[in-house]
Design goal:
The chain has helices at about 1-20, 30-75, 80-145. By secondary structure, the protein is mainly alpha-helical. It comes from Ancylobacter dichloromethanicus.
Length: about 140
């Protein structure tokens, strides 16, 4: 008896999933595949953007380490107070420039993520509109028969 009760619950769950995706029945696998492909493209684009950002961050970090290391070596060569001030300025300039590059990288990432999310939302809204416009026609044809 437990298996008989579980089967309808399982079907109810699947129907709920299909309803959430905007599908009226299991025969609409093409629509579901289209939505999965759109989601797959979305996640692929996000993964690519995150990978590019990671590479840019690593490049920036390595450049900062190298530049700050050279600037710190200038402290060893300081003979006058003006040299110390110049070396400190060089270190601060390197830190501020690398911080600026990191900020730009994060800004670019956030812009890309925003664009990808907006595109995904637009496409999903368009699909919902198409389904909503198509639903009354299908309902009226059923009522007419």
């Amino acid at each position: 008896m437990a298996t008989k009760n579980e089967a309808p619950v399982g079907f109810d769950r699947m129907n709920a999933v299909f309803a959430w995706w905007g599908l009226s029945g299991a025969d609409n696998t093409g629509k579901l595949d289209g939505q999965f492909k759109r989601f797959q493209a979305f996640t692929s684009d996000l993964q690519k953007a995150y990978g590019e950002t990671y590479s840019a961050q690593m490049s920036t970090l390595l450049g900062a380490n190298e530049r700050i290391g050279r600037s710190l070596l200038e402290f060893v060569q300081c003979r006058r107070p003006q040299d110390v001030i110049a070396a400190e300025s060089s270190v601060m300039a390197a830190i501020l420039e690398e911080t600026s590059l990191q900020t730009k990288t994060w800004l670019d990432l956030s812009q890309k993520v925003q664009d990808y999310c907006a595109t995904m939302a637009r496409e999903t809204a368009g699909e919902i509109r198409r389904q909503a416009n198509g639903t009354p026609d299908a309902g009226s044809s059923v009522k007419a028969s």
